[in-house]
Give the backbone structure.
Amino acid sequence: SLGWRRALLPLTFVSATSMLLGQADIVLLGFFRAQSEVGVYGAAVRVATLAGFGLIAVNMVASPLLARLHAENSRAQLQTALYSAARLALGFTVAVGLMLAWQADRVLALFGAEFSVGADVLRILLVGQAVNAAAGSAGAFMVMDGAERQAARKLGGVVLLNALANLVLIPLYGMHGAALATAASVALWSVVGALWVLRAHGLRSSVF
C-alpha cells in the first residue's frame, strides 16, 4: 500500500506533464498568432496523432508481456519482445504517416479548404511521431519497472525545453515553429527513454 502511494504522485506528474507536452504548443501559439492559425495547427495535431495510435496499441498489448518477462528475468525474451513491439509500432506509424504526408493538404482540407495550408506542419509533426514509435515501449517500460520518479523528472525537463523552444520558434516561424518545437520535444523524450532502458538494463527498446 505504501509503495502504491509513493508511486501515485510521480505517475500523476507523468500524466500531467504528458498533457502539457501535448498542449503547450497550442496555448503558446495562441499568444502570438491569430486564432485562424491556431485552428489550422490544431487540426494538424489531431491528424498527426492518428499515426501515433500504433504505439499506443502496441503498449497496451505488450505491457503485460514485458512485465511478466521482466519479473521472470527472461532477458533474451524480453529483448525480443521489446524489439518486436518497436518494429510493429514503427511499421504502423510509417505506413500511416507516409500516407498522411503524401495527402497532407487533402486530408487537412477535410476540415475546410483553408486548413490545407497546414500541410507542412502536419509533415513535421509526423516526423516526431515516427521517432517516438522507433523508440518503442521505452516510456511504458520505465513506469512498469518502477522508475516513475525518473520518468517524471526526465519528462518534466523535456516539457520545460518544449515550452522554451516554442517561445523562441513561434514568434519566428508561427505554426511551423510550434511544429518543430513539438516534434523535437517528442523525439527527445523518446530518445531519453530509450537511453534510460539501455543504461539501466542493457536492453534496447528501439528498432536500432
Remarks:
- The mean pLDDT is 86.
